[in-house]
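Cont'd.
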Amino acid sequence: MKPAAWIAVLVAGALFGFGLGVSTMISPEVVLSFLRFVDFGLLLVLGGAVVVCLLAYQIGPRLLAKPVLAPTFGARPALADRDTLVGAAIFGVGWGLCGVCPGPAVAGLGAGNWPLLIALAGIFAGAYAQGFIASRR
Amino acid sequence: MQDRPVRVAAFLRVFLNHDTFMLNSLFPLGWQHYVVGGLFIGSGVGVLFLLTGLVGGASSVFSSTWSYLSRLSFFRQTRFVQTRAWRLVYALGMVLGAWIWWHWFGPAQAAHTGLPWWQLLAGGFLVGYGARLSNGCTSGHGICGLAFLQWPSLLAVLIFLGTAIVVAHLVAAIGVGA
């Protein structure tokens, strides 16, 4: 990767983290208030993010032959297989229990929400357990 | 007989006071910051793609970072080893961006979640296990997958929203935690 591409990754991550702060998604309480139908803001956050990202993903490759700082555009194939669906169900159970998903668990640290370190440790442990079991199959 | 501007103003007052678009009841804390935050999140993921061609879901970093430490065959896959460096930089950027928000735009007092530790730990474990098994989370399936118009991601989003809503209601009903 070119040096400029590393800067781009850092800036892109910063925009993501800034948005998680602005939208207050770094507070598990706000996420849980959506899941309990008290405040539907999360749908606006997700909707706003998807609209902008949709423009970039769908129009970008039609206007640009390649990304500005790299040779090829990536893709994200997803399969509706057992792992994807069972994993989503398990992820939802955890998300409903603690109101923390991977992005805010990381970004929340920048906003001084230290108890999220516990959730972060849990996520790392869960990811290890998944890799451990997948390695034995 | 009132003149026209007065009647229009009176109509608007009634119209808005009755919360016609349900904005106050759906979004008791206001709706603007949600939209603006969402646009920033989308622009981060979008800029990453336009500049570097990379697809930036958040949860992969939790598997790819293990490839630095673990010899398990699962973590040795090229898709983790080859992406682990930029995924860490991306995560660092997320921390930095949240810090910039907090420092210049956020509340003086840091957000401090009041959830019990076991709820964060157990919930986090299931989040990590499930998101990695599913190969995507709220951002991977919810933002990137949907923006690529991948129907399996839409299915994953509907499933995790469904289980999360059920569990959050159950936890609230039982009355444990916050």
